[in-house]
Amino acid sequence: MQKRLVLDQQQIGIILRRFCHQLIENHDNFENTVLLGLQPRGSILMDHLAPILEEISGVKVPFGYLDATFHRDDFRRRDFPLKANETKINFLVEGKKVILVDDVLYKGRSVRAAMDAMIAFGRPQKVELMVLVDRKLTRDYPIMPDYYGIRVNTLDSQYVVVEWANQGQAENAVWITEKVKS
């Protein structure tokens, strides 16, 4: 299987710090801002981002994890049932500026489902999207990130794999790989 490194650990660290500085520039003291990591992989990115944001800004920004499994458009179309992840939101999003955080933006379907799921926690004032990797030429929905780490051109025959050291990998990295043909 061919594997091409797109981001290494150092580059990911730089991107996470850049995200934090961009958020500080765009959100006055985070008084009305919350972050939601999209389960399952956006929550891992959120766990890396939140402590860096607190370190740089000096503000503990409320964050949670949002599962959109039951809001997906393919939920009932699969041969096997999807396994839901935990939604953990200890605040209302009513009237808040919400930043949805995910690792890879591909078709846009997960983000659309997440916006549907988020409404159960209130109507936000504004919603922004932050992704580590934007697969820019593959959208099914007109969804674009407000913050992105890197934009890549990929084929449908490829995967973008995000690896995290705290998830058992050697180090943080982003790879483009070819899908295994069956």
Automatic annotation (TrEMBL):
Matches recorded under CDD domains: PRTases_typeI (cd06223)
Question: Which GO molecular function terms does the record list?
Answer: glycosyltransferase activity
Q: Does the keyword Glycosyltransferase apply?
A: yes
Q: Does the keyword Glycosyltransferase apply?
A: yes
Q: Which Pfam families match?
A: Pribosyltran
- Sorted alphabetically, which keywords does the UniProt record give? Glycosyltransferase, Transferase
Q: Where is the signal peptide?
A: none
Cross-referenced InterPro entries, in alphabetical order?
PRTase-like, PRTase_dom, PyrR_bifunctional
Q: Where is the Phosphoribosyltransferase domain?
A: 6-158
Q: Which named protein is this?
A: Pyrimidine operon attenuation protein / uracil phosphoribosyltransferase
Species: Algoriphagus ornithinivorans
Record lineage: Bacteria, Pseudomonadati, Bacteroidota, Cytophagia, Cytophagales
